[in-house]
Amino acid sequence: MSRRFGIRFDAPDPAPSPQAVAAEFDAAPGLYLHIPFCQSICPFCPYNKVRYEADLAADYLRNLEREASMHLAARPGSFPSVYVGGGTPTLCLDELAGLLERLPITGERAIEVLPPHLTGPRAKHLSALGFDYVSLGVQSFNEQVLRQLRRPGTPDTSRTAIETALGTFDCVDVDLIFDTGYDDRQTLLDDLDLCFRYGVHQVSTYPLMRFGYTPFGKGQHHHGREHALLRAATELAQSYGYERRSVWTFNRAGAPSYTSITRPYYLGLGAGAASFAGGVFLVNHFGLEQYRRALAEGHLPVARIARLPGPAAAAYRAFWQAYTGTMPVKSHDPLLDHPVSMALRDVSRMLGWSRRVGDTVALTDSGYDRYHDLERWVTYHLIEPLWAEMMAEHDPPPTSAPGGGST
């Protein structure tokens, strides 16, 4: 058991049934599938991932289908969207095909793509599988930054991937990382300028999160410098006709949004996936063996569960809604209409972090700055400790020493 912000994450005993999980959702959730495999491990990445092995991946996909079948049997109806992340999902497209055919999806099908993987044939393959939204993990077009991050590919492969994607998919997002320690201001602005000139639908600009359990380890952040950089990025975006549609994303006017974190309610499948139903937060096993074993025993692979009382659920929902830069004054979501959410809106307006714009409350420049800092603080104090605890499932069990102890 662990406690963060008064929210207690317990190891469920027993694991909730698929029917119990389905009953937690008042509306159809977005669906998330986690593919943890990578051919090489980037040292800055905090997500749940393991090195790719064909047999291991094939076994994992069979278990992923088993988990999906349990949920599909428990809740009739469709999902409004599916998001496939990782890891490097494009390593397992053939294995994913059968599962994707079975999923009743009414909206967009989104997937994360490593730029060197987006060749013409693979783009056609993705399109044939039904994917219409792609996110390219470019991170930077600067060779020195790519070397520092140890990212596969080159600036040329990233540019080719963008050109290929724009001719194939309805929404193309490009991920860029800043605060890497190398001339961040001009590097990010140059990277953004190139994306805007290409006319991609969305650019997501993430600060490098330095999780202590990664090889990059902890590091200091310069908040004022980052605020100034994001304001400069906003001005550059506006000069190209783009708008700031969330704290870290810029979208071409009229273009769709590539979203994952801002889906209000979601069901996560796979090792390391999470689900949020409003009153409950679920986290799957991170370790592939623990994930497999739970399913083999006929249980959902839920490793941690947190029951959120109404005020906590409302605060959590409002926090991620604020990431989009706007909060509705009145919605059809009881958590956003909860007194806690309304109080948070009122406080943000009194502090000058937001202002009324029609039927919404929108973040001001100061509000974007404050949320940038708050999001990182929550990441380090809520997400990192929980993930670090779950990452321990990858550690080998201790071996018995001759004296009966362990080494």
Describe the structure.
This protein is an alpha/beta fold and about 400 residues long. Helices cover about 40% and strands about 20% of the residues. It has helices at about 20-25, 55-75, 95-100, 120-130, 145-150, 155-165, 185-200, 225-240, 290-295, 310-325, 340-350, 365-390, and strands at about 1-5, 5-10, 30-35, 35-40, 50, 80-85, 110-115, 135-140, 170-180, 200-205, 240-245, 250, 265-270, 275, 280-285, 300-305, 325-330, 355, 360-365. Helix 7 runs parallel beside helix 8 (about 225-240). The model is unreliable at about 400-405 (pLDDT under 50).
Quick rundown:
The chain is α/β, with parallel strands linked by helices and 407 residues long. It contains 12 helices and 19 strands.
SSE layout:
Blueprint (H helix, E strand, L loop, with lengths): L1 E3 L2 E3 L8 H7 L5 E6 L1 E2 L11 E2 L2 H21 L7 E5 L6 H10 L6 E5 L6 H9 L4 E7 L3 H7 L5 H12 L4 E8 L5 H15 L3 E6 L15 H17 L2 E3 L4 E4 L13 E4 L4 E3 L3 E5 L3 H9 L5 E6 L2 H14 L2 E3 L10 H12 L3 E4 L2 E4 L1 H27 L16
Parallel strand pairs: 3-6, 3-13, 4-5, 6-7, 7-8, 8-9, 9-10
Antiparallel strand pairs: 1-2, 10-12, 11-12, 14-15, 15-16, 17-19, 18-19
Helix pairs in contact: 1-2, 2-9, 7-8, 8-12, 10-11
